[in-house]
């Protein structure tokens, strides 16, 4: 039985490597899209809650600061922190 030449094996390996790289690039894109979706998953819930309460005037900077805090620390951490205001 003849053994395949090393050149043929190397070419097959390179072809497989390129196919795997393409699959990995596709998975990376899908993961990035899923991460973006997950990062914005609470927006609809927050907007619905905001529609149900009266809110005093805010500056753009104040609104941006609140939104950035939620984005950076998460809704639970901000809600826990804000709940301290009720206790006072």
Characterise this structure.
The protein is 80% helix and 0% strand. The model has no long low-confidence stretch (mean pLDDT 90). Helix 3 packs across helix 4 (75-87). The protein has two domains: 1-39; 54-88. By secondary structure, the chain is mainly α. It is built from four helices and no strands. The longest helix has 34 residues, at 6-39. Keywords: Coiled coil. Residues 10-44 form a coiled coil.
Please trace the helix and strand order, writing H or E for each element.
Answer: HHHH
Provide the β-strand percentage band. Answer: under 5%
Please tell me the overall pLDDT.
90
Q: Give the fraction of residues assigned to helices.
A: over 70%
The figure for the number of domains is: 2
Uncertain segments are none
Intertermini distance = 86 Å
Counting DSSP E segments of at least 2 residues, the number of strands comes to 0
Coiled coil: 10-44
Keywords: Coiled coil
Topology:
Layout: H1 6-39, H2 43-51, H3 60-73, H4 75-87
Helix pairs in contact: 3-4
Labels describing this entry:
single chain, 88 residues, mainly alpha, coiled coil
Question: Outline of this structure?
Answer:
The protein is mostly helical. The protein has helices at 6-39, 43-51, 60-73, 75-87. 80% of the residues lie in helices and 0% in strands.
């Amino acid at each position: 039985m003849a053994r395949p030449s090393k050149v043929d094996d190397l070419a097959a390996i390179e072809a497989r490597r390129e196919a795997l790289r393409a699959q990995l690039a596709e998975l990376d894109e899908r993961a990035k899209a899923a991460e973006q979706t997950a990062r914005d998953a609470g927006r609809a819930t927050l907007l619905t809650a905001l529609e149900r309460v009266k809110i005093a005037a805010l500056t753009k900077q104040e609104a941006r600061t609140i939104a950035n805090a939620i984005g950076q620390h998460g809704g639970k951490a901000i809600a826990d922190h804000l709940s301290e205001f009720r206790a006072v």
